[in-house]
Amino acid sequence: MNIDKKYVLDLMQELLSIPSPAGDTGAAMERIQQEFESLGIPTRTTRKGALIGQMVGTDHENHRLIAAHIDTLGGMVSEIKSNGRCRIANIGNFPWNAYEGENLIIKTMDGTTYNGSFLPEKASIHIHSESAGETLRTPKSMEIRIDEPTESKQETLDLGIRVGDFVTFDPRTIITESGYVKSRYLDDKACVAVLFGAVKYMVDNNITPSHTLDLFISNYEELGHGVSGISDAVYEMLALDIGTVGEGHTSHEHAVTICAKDSRTPYDFGFRKRLVELAQQNNIDYRVDVHFRYGSDASISVLQGADVNFACIGMGVDGTHHYERTHWDAIENNTRLVIEYARS
């Protein structure tokens, strides 16, 4: 199976370069709409702005839904301080020190953007001595330093910056010669690229899925309400999300993770077993893992009442919700498992 590596990585890099914090995903959705169209996949948009492409399968009465989310972590201006700098509220769950020193963009209501950096109020050791390193990083101790001549609240307001403006951080995407992919927001734009890589492979090779596939790109997963408005014909949902690599976990940066349980619920055993068997039969490197402080579009959907069978897979990612890293091997294994699932 020859996955189009250049296509997958190029699309992933492009999506990573488009800011899409949960609540402001319009530009990324427009790009995804274009990609569906280029592959000849018809789409519809939900009332909440999610996008659903559809590949008609041999069985058109019983649909399978594959979900990946385009929304990311980010921030929102919550206060403009007297010195012209801004405090932010977090969008999604991340430790504040994970973004310390990062470059960012503030997007105003009219679409104007301003560059800045995210720093602790006590950033300089020359000014604040040891307290620069000892101060706890909290919403009250962190601030945006705007790259404009502003030293007062009024001067920042004069720029057009207001409370409620979205903040996105520089993804700093790097692909190494050894195949590692480093970036913020691999969760979950790498999985969106995997989904399209699988679809492109099926289109290029005239593969008809066994069941009609509803390809759901969600836009509020990081906030816990990603998938809604799905067809009554959907009987099974597969979420594509990251596998968490680290101490106490089996996930690996070169393998696809098949999730057995997250912090909300175990995943269906029979569905998980089918995915494991597909991986084994097709020599796909995989791991089965249990995730903590984790939920997917699939597990959250069933908790909200969706009457569907459910599972979750994704490439192993190190440093999740921080400066993340995976490897092409994991991306490829993830893509291959999606393809085998779609035609099984």
Task: Describe what this molecule looks like in 3D.
- With 344 residues, the chain is α/β, with parallel strands linked by helices.
- The protein folds into 2 domains: 5-72 and 185-343, Aminopeptidase; 74-169, Peptidase M42, domain 2 (Elongation Factor Tu (Ef-tu), domain 3, Beta Barrel), CATH 2.40.30.
- It is 27% helix and 30% strand.
- The protein has helices at 5-16, 26-38, 125-128, 131-134, 153-158, 186-204, 269-281, 297-303, 328-343, and strands spanning 43-45, 51-55, 59-69, 74-80, 86-91, 103-107, 113-120, 142-146, 166-169, 174-175, 180-183, 211-218, 234-240, 243-245, 256-261, 286-290, 309-318, 324-327.
- Strands 1, 2, 3, 12, 13, 14, 15, 16 and 17 form a 9-stranded mixed β-sheet that branches. It has a 6-stranded antiparallel β-sheet with strand order 5-4-9-6-7-8.
- Strand 15, helix 7 (269-281) and strand 16 (286-290) form a beta-alpha-beta unit.
- The two termini are 15 Å apart.
Helix content: 25-40%
Report the CATH architecture of the largest domain: 3-Layer(aba) Sandwich
Rough outline = globular
Note poorly predicted spans: none
Report the order of strands and helices: HHEEEEEEEHHEHEEEHEEEEHEHEEH
Helix and strand composition category: alpha/beta
| Strand runs, count | 18
Termini separation comes to 15 Å
Radius of gyration: 21 Å
Tell me the CATH superfamily of the largest domain.
Answer: Zn peptidases
For this structure, the CATH topology of the largest domain is Aminopeptidase
CATH class membership of the largest domain: Alpha Beta
The fraction of residues assigned to DSSP E strands is 25-35%
Q: What is the helix tally?
A: 9
Q: What is the residue-averaged pLDDT?
A: 97
Total separate domains: 2
Largest sheet: 9 strands, mixed
